[in-house]
Give the backbone structure.
Amino acid sequence: MFEQAISAMASVVVDPYLLGLIFATTILGVIIGVLPGLGATTGAALLLPFTLTMDPVHAIAVLATIYVSATFAGSITAILINTPGTSAAAATTFDGYPLAQKGEAGRALGIAVISSTVGGIFSVLILCFAAPLLARVAYEFRSPEYFALTVFGLSMLASISAGGAVKNLIGGIFGVWLSTIGAERVTGIERFMFGNYELYEGLHFVPIFIGLFAISELLVQSKTVNKIVNTVSMKAVKLPTLEDYKKIWKTILRSCGIGTFIGVLPAEGATVASMIGYSEARRWSKNKKEFGKGSIEGIAGAEAANNAATGGAMVPTMVLGIPGSGTTAIILVGLMVHGLRPGVYLFTEQVEKVYQIFGSMFVANVMFMLMGLYAAKLFARVSLVPTQILWPIVFALSVIGAYAFQGQLLDVWLALIFGVIGFFARRHGFSVAPIAVGLILGEMVETNLQHSLKMFDGAWWMILTQPLALMFLVFAFLGLCGPMIFSWITKQKD
Amino acid sequence: MKNIYLVPLILTIFSLAVIAIALQLDTSPEMIVGDSMQARSFPIFLMILKLILIGILSFQFYKNNPKPIALEKYHTWGSMFLFLLFYLLTVYTDMFIGIFVVIFLMSILWGERRIWVAFLTATITPGLIFLLFDYVLKIRFPRGILMNLYYG
């Protein structure tokens, strides 16, 4: 197994086509990450239709590369123009931009690049070891455990991305409801189709995701037209000095652990990881006063954590079929579209492909490091592409991408409708990621509940007698009610 | 009623409508469903859960009194109108004509003052996308005025 894994990962380096693909996608990922508003999730949603005709490993490698490189690249604009390219880089602006304003933009970028690379590589290594182990545990799962696990995953939506817990849960339930559209899987009864037989097999993820992430972002960006950005000048990206490394190595290691752990939690992602990574860096720092004024520990804490979350988020995605973030939800769809069923099967029957994907992520981390160090200045210029040119192009890519998935115009209309729904949801403080995750988990939760009820002759409470299922349900309860209970206890103490 | 309660109200109406529609769904014979659920049960359960959450959300609004959300700029409404125009042009003329018109008008709407730049963007983008999808990805596009000329 170990030898097979190593040889599969090494095969990435000797496959010139795959290497070329990762190289090109890393450039694209950095550009996507640099462009404010686009980000890893939108980029992956737009690229998904282009991967349909690719070999499964190449397709997932492309999506995973976009994920890691765009997550890093968000820091470039966060540092240079105080506008995070991705939400995961929001914490980087706190210290990255002030440091750049002091004339040390190169140093800030150098710290961000190195921290991101270490975080990314660390998480890929954890992914390589943890995923097969978790797959072995998942081998024991039956319907009650899967049902409880998906409920746990849905409960974690309470804390995903922006928006309050209640709003996120409402979004998640809406997503789960969307998964009930079409013929019911056991009885074949048509639900919410209104006579439209193109919906018989349910809503397809690709057009919905393009709508929720790309089209809704287009409408959000329309509100920022004519926004003026301040740029800072930069001569070159400097590697951090030995003195800098001495100051930040503990922070990077801590954030690697935090980021990977947060990423592994279902429905948590790089944004949460970077915020916690940043606040922990501040908590443990001897120079707390420097934070917010250009602390290199602050940059390292946020950047190592958000890239460490990328590998972590791939663990539940590939092992359990539960996405760890909006982008991994799209990667999960990519896996399904290419016939790679996430779960134990993937780690027993398709081990080679799995490790080739992991190897691709490893290579992508190294490639974005080189690009970050030698071409960050060039990439930063991309962020100055006028919105009035960029977003109409995104519109064209979105509609063609939605159409290309199945060759149905209905998918284009669905993408536009869900774009508008996503926009109004975001306008009122609802994040769209819970809708996407709910849509993916919806089928799993209903099917496993049905199977569990059959297993226990309709006695639903018997699910609680299964130790692992009970554990996941307790976690779900704690995830939902824990913060409330904790604050109540704190109030009582005060 | 304050504007802030419009969202819970719309969500409530939506949830009740889903429940009403779900109650109209067919039921399966006992021998097929067995000890499991009817097709209608799960969506109804979801909507009840959602109504409870909407209640909590309304209570939060009542307690916190959030600021009303400002109206959108004309760019946003205009972009949505262009989506509608795209639909009409695609259905009645051709998808690529729709894309061309929308890109051109969206560029102008969003503030592009150089007509030739908007025109070039609107021409080159769909052209390159068509070449990529037609030659490389082998996707057949829906028939329309231009596609009929191309496919014959």
Notes: Chain A touches chain B through 59 residues (CB under 8 Å). The two ends of chain A are 55 Å apart (CA to CA).
